[in-house]
Amino acid sequence: MDYLQQLLGPAWLPIWTLAKIIIIVLPLLIAVAYLTYAERKIIGYMQVRIGPNRVGFFGYRLIGLGQPIADAVKLMTKEIVLPTGADKPLFLLAPVLAIGPALAAWAVVPFTEDWVLANIDASLLYIMAITSMGVYGVIVAGWASNSKYAFLGAMRSAAQIVSYEIAMGFALVGVLMAAQSLNMVDIVNAQRGGFWQWYWLPLFPLFLVYLISGVAETNRAPFDVAEGESEIVAGFHLDYSGMAFAVFFLAEYANMILVSALTSIMFLGGWLSPFPFLPDGFFWIAAKMSFVLFLFLWFRATFPRYRYDQIMRLGWKVFIPVTLIWILVIGGFMQTPLGYLFH
Amino acid sequence: MDFASLVFYFLAAILLLSGLRVVTAKNPVHSALALVLTFFTAAGLWILLEAEFLANALILVYVGAVMVLFIFVVMMLDINIEEMRKGFWDHLPLAGLVAGLMAVEMVMVLGGDRFGLSAPTAKPAGYSNTRELGLLLYTDYVYAFELAAVILLVAIVAVIALTMRRNPNRKAIDPGWQSKQTAEGHIRMVNLKPQHPDYKNKEDDE
Q1: How far away is chain A from the Cα of B59, in angstroms, using its nearest Cα?
Q2: For chain A, does the N or the C end have fewer beta carbons within 10 angstroms?
Q3: Interface ipTM
Q4: How far is A125 from chain B (nearest CA, A)?
Q5: How many angstroms separate the first and last alpha carbons of chain A?
Q6: A128, A139, A151: residue with CB nearest B68
Q7: Out of A125, A136, A169, whose CB is closest to B53?
Q8: Is there a contact between A111 and A271 (Cβ–Cβ < 8 Å)?
Q9: What is the CA radius of gyration of chain B?
C-alpha cells in the first residue's frame, strides 16, 4: 500500500477515498438486493407460504437465491416509459434525488471504531440534514408525473415525513444529551460496558419513538400511505417503470438499512459486544442491524395500514410529547447525583 | 489555485446560476426547486468556511422542512406567472433600492479590511464549531436566544389559535372512545328471508 501511495503521489487521496466509497456502496447494494429476497422469504414463511424458490445458479435452485439478480436484470432491460404530460427533466431527476441522500448518509456511519469513511465531529447533524433531503425524491416524483394518484401520494408522504422528522430529531437530542457528543464514534464509545449500558435502557421511550419514526420515515408498512396500493394504486412512483422504478426501490431499502444502522449505533451499542468477555467487532453491528431489519419485515407482515389521521395523531400528539417529556427527565436527572444513569 | 478555491468557484457558480433560476423560471415549482439548490450550495460554501453546524442547520431547517412545506403549497396553487409579471415596472424602484442596499452591504463585507473588519482565520485542528456555538448561545447570548425561542413559540400558538375552527358538525372521532368500541350495541343480528324473485319460499307454498 505504501508503494501504491508513492506511485500515485497527490492522486492517492482521491483514489483511495473513491475505493473506500466503493467498499461501502457495493456491499450496501448487494445487501439491498438480498433484503428484498429476505423480505419475500420471511413474509412468505409468516404467511405459511414458501416464497421465491425457483431461480438459482448453474441449474441448481439453491432455495431461490438467484431471485434478486433475476429481478435486477429484468428491471434493467425494461423500457422507461415517459408519460406525455410529465415534466420530463424533473421526472428523471426524482429517482436521483431519492437515492442520493440514501447513499450520501453512509459517509459518516461508523461500522467499527476505525471503519468509518469520514469521522467528523457533527456526524449526527450531518445524518439528520442529509436524511431530511430524502423527501424531495418523493415530492418531485409525484408532481412531475402529472397524475392525481402520484400527486396524492407525494402530498401524503411530504406531510408524514415532515411530521415524523420532528419526533426523530427530538429522540436524537436525547441521545446526544446522554453521550454529550454529536460524533457517532463517541456516541458508541459512551455506551461501553455491555448490554445494560446501551442507551436502549435509559432512553427506552426515545428508542421506541426513533424505531417507529424510522419505519414511518422510510414509508414502510404500516405507514406506507404514500404508496397505498388499495387507495392510490402505487402513490408517487405510479408512473415509473424499469430502472427508474428500481432506483426508488433501491432508495427505500437503502434507507431501511440506514435506519437500522442508526438505531444500532444510537441505542444498541453499535459494534460493542453485549457481554464483556466477548470481543467487539463488525459482527455485532451486522447482527444488530439484521435484527432491526427483521423487525421492519415483521411489522409489515403483522400490522394493517394506518389510517391517515391516525398517523398524524401518533406523530404529533403521542411521539412529540413523549420525546419532550423524556428530554426533560434526562435533563432533570443530570442535575442530580443520579445523572450517571443516563451516561 | 488550490483545491479549496476550486471547490469554492464550482459551488459559487452553481449558487449564482440557481439563484438566477429562482427569479427567471417560468414555473413556480421549478423556481422553488432552484431555491432548494441555492440553499444546498450555500451550505456547501459554509462548510468551506468550517462552519459545519450552521451548514447542517441550514439544510436541516430550510431544505428539510421550510422548503418542503413551501413546495407543498406552491405545487397545489395555480399560479399564473404572466399575471404576476404585470407589476414589474411598478415595483422596480423599491426592488432597486433593496438591491442597492444589499450591494452596499456586500461591498462592506467583501472589502472588510478597509472598513476595519478582520478576515476569518483558519481554526486549529480539534476546534469544534458546534461546541463553541453552543457555549456562546447558552452563556453570553442566552437572553437573546431565549427571547427568539419565546417569539417562535408565540408565533406557533398564534397560528394555531387563528386557524382553529370549532365546527359543531366536525366528524373527527375521539380515538379513546373509538378503541373502546366492541360489537355489542352496534351490531344487531336479524333473521332475514331471501328476497330474490326467482326463489320460491317454502313457507309461502305451505
Answers
A1: 6
A2: N
A3: 0.83
A4: 6
A5: 40
A6: A139
A7: A125
A8: yes
A9: 31
d(CA A15, CA A27): 19
pLDDT for the residue A123: 86
**DSSP secondary structure, A140-206, as one string:** HHHHHTT-HHHHHHHHHHHHHHHHHHHHHHHHHHHHHHHHT-S-HHHHHHTT-SSGGGSTTTTTHHH
The one-character DSSP state at B7 is H
Does B45 contact A at CB distance below 8 Å? no
> Hey, what's the cell of B163?
386557524
Provide the chain A residues 139-178 that lie in CB contact (below 8 A) with chain B.
139-140, 143, 151, 154-155, 158-159, 161-162, 165, 169
* Closest to B195 measured CA to CA, from B187, B186, B204: B204
Q: What are phi and psi of B35, to 5 degrees?
A: -65, -40
Whether residue A222 has a cis bond before it, omega within 30° of 0: yes
Which residues, other chains included, contact A125 with Cβ-Cβ below 8 Å and sequence gap of 6+? A182, B52, B53, B56, B57, B60, B130
A225 in contact with B at a CB cutoff of 8 Å? no
Question: Using one digit for the tens of pLDDT, what is the confidence trace for B85-96?
Answer: 777 788 888 989
- CA torsion sign, B100 to B105 to B106 to B111? positive
Rounded (to 5) percent helix, strand, coil in chain A: 70, 0, 30
Place of cell 431530511: A132
Block mean pLDDT (10 aa), chain A, length 343 = 73 83 90 90 90 81 84 87 84 90 90 82 86 87 85 83 86 88 86 82 89 87 76 77 86 91 89 82 89 92 84 88 91 81 70
pTM above 0.95, yes or no: no
- A42-69 exposure pattern, b = at least 16 Cβ within 10 A, e = fewer: bbbeeeeeebbbebbeeeeeeebbbbbe
Minimal-distance CA residue of chain A relative to B63: A133
- Please answer yes or no on whether A182 and B130 come within 8 Å at the CB atom: yes
Question: Reduced to 3 states, what is the DSSP secondary structure of residue A261?
Answer: helix
Residues paired with A336 in a beta bridge: none
C-alpha cell at B73: 403549497
**B137 DSSP β-pair partners:** none
Long-range contacts of B135-144 (CB under 8 A, 24+ apart): none
Q: Of the candidates A128, A151, A159, which has its C-beta nearest B60's C-beta?
A: A128
Which residue, among A39, A42, A58, A61, has the nearest Cα to A50 in the 3D structure?
A: A42
